[in-house]
Structures are given as C-alpha cells and as structure tokens.
Amino acid sequence: MRIILLGAPGAGKGTVAKLLTEFDGSVQISTGDILRSAVKEGTPLGKKAKEYMDRGDLVPDSLIMDIMEARLQEPDCRNGFILDGFPRTIPQAEELKKLLTKLNIKLDFVANLDVPRDVILDRLTTRRTCCNPECQAIYNIKSNPPKEDGTCTLCNHQTIQRDDETEEAITNRLETYNQKTAPLIGFYEKEGLLKTFLSLSSKDTVADIKKTLQS
Question: What span, in angstroms and rounded, lies between the C-alpha atoms of 73 and 156?
Fold first, then answer.
C-alpha cells in the first residue's frame, strides 16, 4: 500500500500505521520520529526542531522535505509505505505531489482519521513515553499503563510525559492543526484521494482501511 494518514494529534495515526505495516510489509514513515531522534541526539536540526516542538508548533518545511525525498528512495519503501502525519500543510502537500510524480509513485488513497476533541485530549494527557532513546515505548496510564513505579515494561527505564503532551501544549497543537493541517482534507478531496474513517478504535480503523484497500 501507499497511503497517507491524516488526523489531529492523538487521532491514533502512529498506532494505525504500525498495525498496517503488519498487513503487507509496508513501512511506516513518521517525520515526528525522525525529528524526535534528532532532538535526542542534539544535532543542529534537532535543536532547531525542539524549539518548535516544545511550543507545539509545526517544524518548517525547509527542515523536512529533503529528509522525505531521501527516505522514500530507501529500499524498504519498495513494498509500500504509510506516511504518518505528513504532509501537514497545503504547501507540503503540493511539494509532496511534485516529489511523488518525480519518483513515479502513485498513492492508493489518503485516510483521514476522524476523532472527537474530548477523546484526543484524554488520549494525549494520559500518554507516557519511555525515556530510553533505544526503546521509546508508548503507554497510556488508563488503558496500557507502565509498571507501578512508572518504569517501562520492556527496558525498565522511566516513562515520562512529553513536553508537547501537557494540556496547554495539546490545546496549542490542536489550534495549529485546525489552522494549518485540517485544510488538507479539502485538498485531497479535490484530488479524489480522500477517504474518512471514524477512529475510536485502532483495530476497527485498520480493518476498515484494509477493506478499502481490497475493494
């Protein structure tokens, strides 16, 4: 498959993408993971990106497009890919369209994951992430908690609440999403690529996407 996942922060794009990779071997491509890795390593790109991410703002296109072009040409993308949370703006979508044409890649469709705001706030404020950069397992203190002492069940490192997952930062991220990313729904609708899925359960959403791919 070659699809894009759209949806607000906390819509479940990462979980859905991971489950879809198990379906046909397509790879998950998340600019968020790439950027967070750079932040943890303290690279010049990472330091610059961290300023935006800590505020809940979008990282500028200039820091992203070259990374995406190189990533799409890596061997593991030949079987397919799932773009998780990219593009985020109309200019990015326009640049991605040019890039895919250049690389002779055709998308199957764009999956828009629709989730109510109160569900998003609850999901993100209760999320915890393993602080070990080699692990970064994600937990939820309600539905999938870490150990009782707050450590990771996989590597025993402490789990933390990320700076961009406080209620204040989430509200900022949702406002940014509504202003800059939500218009992508109209963009891809005009392109004839948009399909919207109510995403209250990741497993149900994945099942619906698989049905759409097979139909």
Answer: 36
How many domains, the chain? 1
Owning domain of residue 199: 2-116+180-214
CATH number, domain at 210? Answer: 3.40.50.300
Domain membership of residue 76 (yes or no) is: yes
Give the residue numbers annotated as catalytic, written as ranges: 13, 88, 127, 162, 173
**Residue 59 included in any domain:** yes
- How many Å apart are CA 40 and CA 162, to the nearest integer? 12
The one-letter code for the residue type at 86 is F
205 found inside a domain: yes
Neighbours of 134 (CB within 10 A): 8
CB 67 within 8 A of CB 87: no
pLDDT tens-place values along the chain, 215 residues long: 999 999 998 898 988 999 999 988 899 998 877 777 778 878 787 888 888 888 888 788 888 887 788 788 889 999 899 999 889 889 999 999 999 999 999 999 999 999 998 999 898 899 999 999 999 999 999 989 999 999 999 999 999 999 888 888 999 989 988 888 889 999 999 999 999 999 888 899 999 999 999 98
Contact predicate 169/10, CB 8 Å: no
Rounded-to-10 torsion of CA 149, 150, 156, 161: -160
Q: Specify if 171 maps to a domain.
A: no
